[in-house]
Automatic annotation (TrEMBL):
Annotated InterPro entries: CheY-like_superfamily (IPR011006), OmpR/PhoB-type_DNA-bd (IPR001867), Sig_transdc_resp-reg_C-effctor (IPR016032), Sig_transdc_resp-reg_receiver (IPR001789), WalR-like (IPR039420), WH-like_DNA-bd_sf (IPR036388)
Positions of the DNA-binding region: 143-243
Molecular function as annotated in GO: phosphorelay response regulator activity; transcription cis-regulatory region binding
OmpR/PhoB-type domain sequence ranges: 143-243
Sites bearing 4-aspartylphosphate, chain numbering: D66
Protein name: Regulatory protein VirG
GO biological process: regulation of DNA-templated transcription
Highest taxon listed in the record's lineage: Bacteria
Keywords: Activator, Cytoplasm, DNA-binding, Phosphoprotein, Transcription, Transcription regulation, Two-component regulatory system
PANTHER family noted in UniProt: DNA-BINDING DUAL TRANSCRIPTIONAL REGULATOR OMPR, REGULATOR OF RPOS
Organism: Pleomorphomonas carboxyditropha
Length: 248
C-alpha cells in the first residue's frame, strides 16, 4: 500500500500537490493545466499502481480520483486510501445514478464531481477541501478544543481524541460535520443547514451525502452505531447532537 501521510499539509510555503488519477489522456491534461494555472502542483497517474508509486515518492495534499479506471477501479482505490490516511479525496464519476456517487462517499471520499464537469465548480471544490484540510489557513490560536462525552475535538489541529486519549482518524468531511454538531449542541440541524456548514457554499452536493457522512461519523464515536445516542435522527427534521459540549 502506498504511504499516506497522516497530514500532508505541512509545508505551507509550497504550493499544494494535487495527484490526478485519470486514464483519459485528454481529461488528465485538461486537469493538469487547470491545476497549474491555479497555482497548484499537479501529477498524473493512470492506474492504482502508478498512483501508489507516485504517493510513495511525493505524497499528496489532495487526490482527484476517477471512478472508472482499468484494473483496480476508483471505488476500490478510495477504500484503500481511506484505510491508510486522511488525505482529501475528490472523486470524478461519469455514473448517472445517485447510488454510485453515494458509494464513493460511503467508502470515504470527501466530495465528488460528475462528468462532464464545470471547471470552475471543480476548482471551487478542490480549494474548499484544501482550505478545510488547513492548507494555507491562518489557524486561530485563540480557538479552544471542544469536549463532549469524554471526547476531545481540536479545531486548530483538526484532530479528534476518544475518551482514552487515542487519536481517531477522520476525513475532512467527517471532521467538518462533527465540528458543526459541536458548535450547535441540542439544536435540530436540517440537512441543508449541515450542507451549508460543511461544504462552504460549494454548488451541487446532494442532501443524501449528509446521511452518508453521519453514518460514518456514528461508526466512529457512538458506543452503538445501530442505536445512536450522540447523534439522533429527527424525523422530518434532520439531526440532533445530544451531548453537552464544553470548551477545554
Amino acid at each position: 500500500m502506498a504511504a499516506m501521510p497522516a497530514n500532508t499539509l505541512t509545508d505551507l510555503s509550497a504550493a499544494p500537490h494535487i495527484v490526478i488519477v485519470e486514464d483519459d489522456a485528454d481529461i488528465a491534461q485538461m486537469l493538469v493545466e487547470l491545476m497549474t494555472e491555479s497555482g497548484f502542483q499537479a501529477s498524473v497517474a493512470i492506474s492504482g499502481g502508478e498512483m501508489n508509486r507516485l504517493l510513495d515518492r511525493r505524497g499528496a495534499d489532495l487526490i482527484v480520483l476517477d471512478a472508472m479506471l482499468p484494473g483496480e477501479d476508483g471505488f476500490s482505490i478510495c477504500r484503500r486510501l481511506r484505510a491508510g490516511g486522511k488525505t482529501p479525496i475528490l472523486m470524478l464519476t461519469a455514473l448517472g445514478e445517485d447510488i454510485d456517487r453515494i458509494l464513493g462517499l460511503e467508502l470515504g471520499a470527501d466530495d465528488y464531481v460528475t462528468k462532464p464537469f464545470n471547471s470552475r465548480e471543480l476548482l471551487a471544490r478542490i480549494k474548499g477541501l484544501l482550505r478545510r484540510a488547513s492548507y494555507g489557513s491562518e489557524a486561530d490560536e485563540a480557538a479552544t478544543a471542544l469536549t463532549f462525552a469524554g471526547w476531545r475535538l481540536d479545531p486548530v489541529t483538526r484532530q479528534l481524541y476518544d475518551p482514552d486519549g487515542v487519536e481517531i482518524s477522520m476525513t475532512t468531511a467527517e471532521f467538518d460535520l462533527l465540528l458543526a454538531f459541536c458548535q450547535h449542541p441540542g439544536q435540530v440541524m436540517t440537512r441543508q443547514q449541515l450542507l451549508g456548514l460543511t461544504h462552504a457554499g460549494a454548488a451541487g452536493p446532494i442532501l443524501r451525502s449528509i446521511d452518508v457522512h453521519v453514518s460514518r461519523l456514528r461508526q466512529k464515536i457512538e458506543p452503538d452505531a445501530k442505536g445512536p445516542a450522540l447523534i439522533k435522527t429527527v424525523r422530518l427534521g434532520g439531526y440532533l447532537f445530544t451531548p453537552a459540549v464544553e470548551r477545554a
